[in-house]
Amino acid sequence: MFVMRLLNLVVVLLLRNISLTKAEPVTATTDLRECSSATIQNCNSAEAASKYCYKDNKIFTLDEDGACTTAAAITLTAGVKIFDFTTKAEAVTTGALENLATIVLFNCVENGTVTCKRTYGYVKTDTNYYSIGADGKNEEVVAGPADTRAGVLDPATFKLNVGDGVEFVSDGNGSIYLVELLDNGIFLSTEDYKKAILSETHFILEAVSNTFIFSKFNSGGEFCVLKSKVVTNLDSEKQNIFCDSFDNIYNCFKDSLCRFYKSFDKPGKYIEDDGSFYVLYVCEGNPIVCTKDDGTNDGVHIFKKYSNEKYITFIKLTEDLASIDIEKEDYNMFECKSGFCERTNGFIKYGIGFSKTGECSEDFYYCTERDWESSIEGNAGKLNISGTGFTYTIKHGLFEYDAPKPVTGGKDYFFAYGTYKYDYITFSNAHLVAFVKNVNEFDDIYITTSTNVVGKGAEKCNSNTYYHYVIRNNYIRFDSGPCNNQIDSSALPDNTETNNGNCCTSTKAESTYCYKDNKIYTLDEDGACTTAEPITISSKEGVKIFDFTRKVEVTTGALENLETIVLFNCFEGDKCKRTYGYVKTDNNRYYRIGADGINEEVVSGDADTTSGVLNPATFKLNVLGTIGPRNGVIDPDTYKLNIENGAEFVSDDSGSSYFVELANNGIFLSSKDYEIANTPSKTIISIMAVKNTFIFNNVLSFDLELFGLHLTSSSLVFYVFNGVDTFTGNDIFGSFDSLYSCSTDGICKLSVTFAGKYIKDHISYDNGHEIRLYVCDGNPVVCTKDDGTNDGVNVFKLINDGKGTLVKLVEDLASVDLESEKYQLFDCKSADCRRTSGYIKYGKDFSSVGRCPYDADCTVQAEADNTGLEGLYRIQSTLKYTGTGFTYTIQDSTPKDLISGNDYLFVEDKYSDYICFSKTNIVAFYIEDIRKKEYDVYINTSTNVVGKGAEKCNSDIYYHYVISFSYIRDSALCENTDTIPGNSTENENENKKENDNENENEEENENENENEQKNKEENTEIENNAIGYIISDENNISICKQSPKDIICTEYTITETSCTSDNIGKLFKNNEKNSNEEISICLNYSDKEYSVKLNAVNQGNYVLYKSSTTNEIFGTSNDKPYVIITINKNSVLLNTKYSNGLKYVYINKEGNTSSSMYRIMNKGDNCPKNIENILELECNNGLCSEHLNIEN
Question: Quick check: bond before 534 cis, omega within 30?
Fold first, then answer.
């Protein structure tokens, strides 16, 4: 019994001892708030300090009335501050906190200046632990039973319950954690908790300087989280920020409160946008953790973009292209390297059996089905996309192609798609072709002729198994030919294999030389490179006269060692090529440096007027013509070449280009090179007059086509192919009589002399790619640009005469033979021609029919039966060939014979609207400019012809079609057009009869407010390329988004009944309150809803905040989270043209009324009382980023 009493006494004493060690909570007694600017403007009160306020990093004392006293302000430095208001200094933390009731926590951040905010949390001193509570209770935390609630400091371990438990850290860098909201009055007061828990779930906590505090400084945005620890802020302004791994992503706001955003419940490979990059993550495990890809998935892939039931967007790599459905789902093409991805463009094979073709754009469009053509023509070749795989054909000229070869996975093909420059090499993967590799300005491309693959290690170009292409000034040299056809004009050996400076080990005496780039190497008698130091010819461009006896460049005086003089043509800084020609020294002596190995002085003598010879009587070079006009070669009065007596030497470095006839005289070309260059067609060579030399210009920067025009009986002026007349600015293609093709080695051959009507292709720096029609006639024949006489659609024949391909207009279709010859269809207007598609009747009695695609040659068609695709509202037309002519049907009308010279409405593909054009024996589909505006088409019901002058639609013999923003709306007989759905003009005037008086008043007011109305219309008019919502009524709404070729509109149904954070950017209607409730749009949601009703009163410009819906429709992003929209009764549309004449756009977030929230402020509007309600945005094309917080 005594033992039991003793034990009970011990237990009581122990319990009493424990209760004595636990301190009671104390009520914080410090009266502290943030200062208003007015409070601290005049600190002149002499009363005793009673309370305090703080602003930035200053603490001010106030008297009992709240007036600022004369006491000096206390300054806080950066970091977490444990401040004791009893001692007016930072608390001593070497032991227990002495004045617990007056302890306050500040979090001070330095960013140029120090800014502080009061905060709450846990504190560790050297000996004790404390909670500084937001509910006004400060308390010591002592050892005790475990408390595992999230966000609580566990008395059993003194770790904060986050993840597996977090210890205090002593340094000032700290870590950030995401903690569930907890109603214990420590980090958030009870009042703040009740507000936060309505919409948020977590808050940001910072472990720093022996404290756990509620982090009051946060820029907002998306945060990566791994086991509750915040890894990084995806919206950080810092560059190159990304998550290495995470399990969840949270959306956090500037008050440091957060809500769950997304996690990945299915394993896979996903792309996340961190604000600067697209980052690829591999998500796997149980539970799933996402880790940044380490390069394992490098390459080009297709990603599916989709949203879950909460409208959260995911971008997931698609492993199996056979399973995708482009028509119903959204896909993009990305190229990924070491975990970073970027959009690219290309084509894919997909669907069952990979029988469908999709096109993917590198812009913000999604992949779309490509089902309207069988091949894609690039600037360097043709990609054939029909069937289940790809084939590729090399292009050797404007219309000439090699045989198609299958595209093999993992190989590169030179293609150059979607640009006038030659910027891309194709990357091929299984069922995927992407354009991802850049070609540099001076790259050499070698194509294996047997496979069409870009060759590896083919730089020597020593066999005819490769074609050689060179990029110069961003343009390609076509017809470079097999490698073994290149002319070697160098008699001096050019050992490109061994003379790289690494194999020069011979110590024998020098015997011969070789050169590479701008270096000359010495060789022994066996041809081995010696140890002698290479000689640098020059580091500058231009002609170099080199003396091999003295091994120096000759710049002045007579040529003393004539037998060892060599000429070099140096270009691109460090490259040189041996050349030949004439030299004039500064003592007026003249020399011939011949390709036949003969060097000799030219002395005065009898006249010799042979082309390409320096005339001994005048010391002028006899030339045919010049690339000109330049350097006074053209007489401004007669516009004739002043070179009948020869071209003179010039002393400057700029030079002039001339042409001479090819001759076997050993001057500019050796006999061997002459035999290679000489062909039955007339040949000329390029000569450059520069720095007192005439040299063979064997390093033209790129291939040329020269248009020759005879100005006198013996002289010509030539114009270069690229279309830039840098000398006069005139239209250099106005007329010509001959065409020469020049390769980069300076050899030019006469391609053709013309008679007929021909198309020629031009590349112009100013105008891009042009195809022009010329009429060639007269004696002698001169070709002149067509003046419009031959406007219209015509058939052209491709003629290959062995010298180049001619494209000649066919005057008589009865002579056409599609089975053995090539033909194409062109539509020409004022000499500007473009390929088009259609049908032709040809042959004897025009009894045969041919189909002419716009991307391939015409082919024999046994029967024409072409049903046009359906438009948005089921418009369908059919074209048929009956054997004697064409018939045309629209909708349910009876077939009508096509009448030549008329237009017919025919939607040939699902993205573009076409008009069917008919002329004798030709039916062509040419694009009318009807895609970017509201366009009315009237069809004569008796003939099916597009009516002329039927705009008033005052007769029931016409059907009325409205094409609105690239889509065909429903049709009706003209007498019924008042009820056409989707006709915006009719919608705007639907109540016209009922509101005549109101309209008359509006017309009167319009005159009084002309300037104001003009400004309003400029900023609120519906754009032609409308993106957004178009509303006929509640049950007929379209949503329009951008597609690769045009705007794609689909039906939209309102499903939302309120504005929440999950449906920003969506239309909603609160049917529960009022069945007649107007439609509204949710503009933003932050603590409360920001929305506006769609009606005439609220018409104007607003901004809409980013969301998955807004991103998809209007193109908002983390970088540009706002978009300008124009709201009308019947539409909510992107406004890319808004301008207020200022640098920034200003928004009143709260508005002066409930209907003006997030409305753009105009000049004269009243500013809100609370300056924080103003948004200052920097906008471009309607997309905006927040500039700064307004303070003044």
Answer: no
DSSP lists the bridge partners of residue 768 as: 764
Spatial separation of the C-alpha atoms in residues 126 and 1051, rounded to whole Å: 67
pLDDT for residue 1019: 44
Do residues 172 and 207 make contact, with C-beta atoms less than 8 angstroms apart? no
Is the bond preceding residue 680 a cis peptide, omega within 30 degrees? no
Residue 979 φ then ψ, to 5°? -110, 20
Q: Are 591 and 559 in contact (CB under 8 A)?
A: yes
Residue 251, beta-bridge partner list = 222, 259
603-627 CB burial, b ≥16 within 10 A, e <16: eeeeeeeebbbbbeeebebbbbbbb
581-584 and 693-696: which strand pairing? antiparallel
Measured between its terminal Cα atoms, the distance across the chain in Å is 82
Residue 674's SS3 state is helix
The label of the residue with tokens 């910072």 reads 206
Query: Tell me, what amino acid is at 1174?
Result: I
Q: Are 902 and 919 in contact (CB under 8 A)?
A: no
SS (H, E, C) 183-210: CCCCCCCHHHHHHHCCCCCEEEEEEECC
DSSP 1116: -
Query: Phi and psi dihedrals of 948, rounded to 5?
Result: -105, 130
Partners of 566 in the beta sheet?
Answer: 546
The dihedral of CA 505, 510, 514, 519: what is its sign? positive
Helix (H) or strand (E) holding 359: strand 356-360
* Per-residue pLDDT at 766: 38
Report the C-alpha gap between 433 and 302 in whole angstroms: 11
Instruction: Round the average pLDDT of the chain to a whole number and report it.
Output: 76
Position 1143 scores a pLDDT of 75
pTM of the model: 0.47
Question: Using only C-alpha atoms, what is the Rg of the chain?
Answer: 41
Least confident of 282-286, 482-486, 850-854, 1181-1185: 482-486
Query: Pseudo-torsion of CA 58, 63, 65, 66, nearest 10°?
Result: 0
Per the listing, tokens 């209907």 go with: 1155
Q: How far apart are CA 124 and CA 140, in angstroms?
A: 10
pLDDT tens for 823-832 read 999 988 888 8
Residues of the chain above pLDDT 90, percent: 23
The residue among 225, 274, 273, 218 whose CA lies nearest residue 246 is: 225
The pLDDT of residue 810 is 94
Report for 79-83, 681-685, 896-900: range of highest mean pLDDT: 79-83
Mean pLDDT within 442-455: 71
CA 621 to chain centre: 51
What tokens does 259 get?
């809500």
* Spatial contact of 761 and 771, defined as CB atoms under 8 Å apart: yes
Mean pLDDT of 1006-1031: 53
What are the angstrom distances between the C-alpha of 461 and each of 413, 443, 458? 18, 14, 5
Q: How far is CA 41 from CA 72, 344, 840, in A?
A: 14, 58, 88
Name the residue with higher pLDDT: 583 or 1078: 583
Q: What is the pLDDT of residue 396?
A: 57
Half-sphere exposure of 1007 (CA within 13 A, CB side): 5
pLDDT of residue 717: 59
Three-state secondary structure call for residue 873: coil
Max intra-chain CA distance, the chain: 151
Say how far apart CA 353 and CA 741 lie, in whole Å.
46
According to DSSP, the residues that pair with 280 across neighbouring strands are 271
pLDDT at 178 over 80: yes
pLDDT at site 398 = 46
CA distance 466 to 486: 12
Site of tokens 């590349």: 763
The arithmetic mean of pLDDT across residues 799-805, rounded, is 59
Q: Which amino acid is at 444?
A: D
Of the candidates 82, 92, 165, the one whose C-alpha atom is nearest the C-alpha of residue 123 is 82
